[in-house]
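User: I'm writing a tutorial on reading structure tokens. Could you give me a worked example: one chain, its sequence, then its tokens, then a sentence or two explaining what the tokens reveal?
Assistant: Sure. Here is the example chain.
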Amino acid sequence: MIILIKYGGPWLLDLCDEHGNLKSLPDKSLIENLSSMFEHRGIYIPILVAKTTDGHYKNLIPLVEDVSAEMDSK
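And here are its predicted structure tokens:
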């Protein structure tokens, strides 16, 4: 799996599993193998993340309109 994300500004893109756990992709190394973090054929939701200057989460915005409908359809 290859994930390439280009997004500017104070926002970061992360993935969250169906239980709401963030994968913290922005904190990982670009050369790190992340396959152990993901379940084969798992459901992951793209999330826009804004952090404060001291690193605390400020906003989390899912990038799908109706997350529960997406989960129920799988």
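What the tokens reveal: The chain has one domain: 13-72. Strands lie at 11-17, 44-51, 57-62.
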